[in-house]
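**Entry details**
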Amino acid sequence: MSSRVWFITGCSTGFGRCLAEEVLKTQDKVVVTARKIADIADFEKKYPGQALCLPLDVTKIPQVNEAVATAEKHFGKIDILVNNAGYGMVGAFEESPDSEIRRMFETNVFGLMNVTRAVLPKMREREAGHIINISSVAGFAATAGFGIYNSSKFAVEGFSDALALELKPLGIKVTIVEPGPFRTDFAGRSITKTDIIPDYEPTVGAMRKYIAALEGGNQAGDPVRAAELICKLAATGPVTMRMPLGAAAIERMRTKLKQVEADLHTWEADARSCDRK
């Protein structure tokens, strides 16, 4: 079997870097991207001919198109796209400046769409491909103090659900990966913090303390193990639309599902009565 070609965004640290490393160990080829090429230059030195490192800011459409075109010319194809670039923000909605909200959506949502749009034409021509969107358990269950990040990842999940339906007849697969807390830079350099309004201390304050406690690398999740499972997913083919990672993700998702089921039970009879007889 010929080696597959991966295109991974956000590889300077965290999941992106770990995943690129694990994929390269399997002898597949990887287009390793990050905003600063210096942060990923070591991949080409360690894996000559197997890794292609390109600068990529997913919010800059011309750069996205150039990176995808360069990757396709260099390796001849892109089999697997991993939309990993993104960051978080802690703060109540009222505490969050409009400029920061828009900046987050530009990266977490529109940046993901930019790269997906650039990759799709060649995947459609080949009637093959796999798009893996790195979301979060925060894209499935919301938490006070994470509302802006929640909303960006909820958007990723809604987009991915619809995209999967559109692409299935074309031979292209879509999977949403939903990690819980992992030992990456997410709680440090990859998270923005807002100014504080004291009235939100009982709710948002708890999230701030939780994030601060994670900055020392105290998360339960092992990013290397997560990368291994994503490689397994790509090798075996997605059997589900979603892939939760970590015990915390499983528990939060189950709690949310129980809440939704309880709400359905409470309102089902009244809801059905709204339909025209």
Summary: The chain has a mean pLDDT of 91. The first strand starts at residue 5 and ends at 8. The CA atoms of residues 125 and 250 lie 37 Å apart.
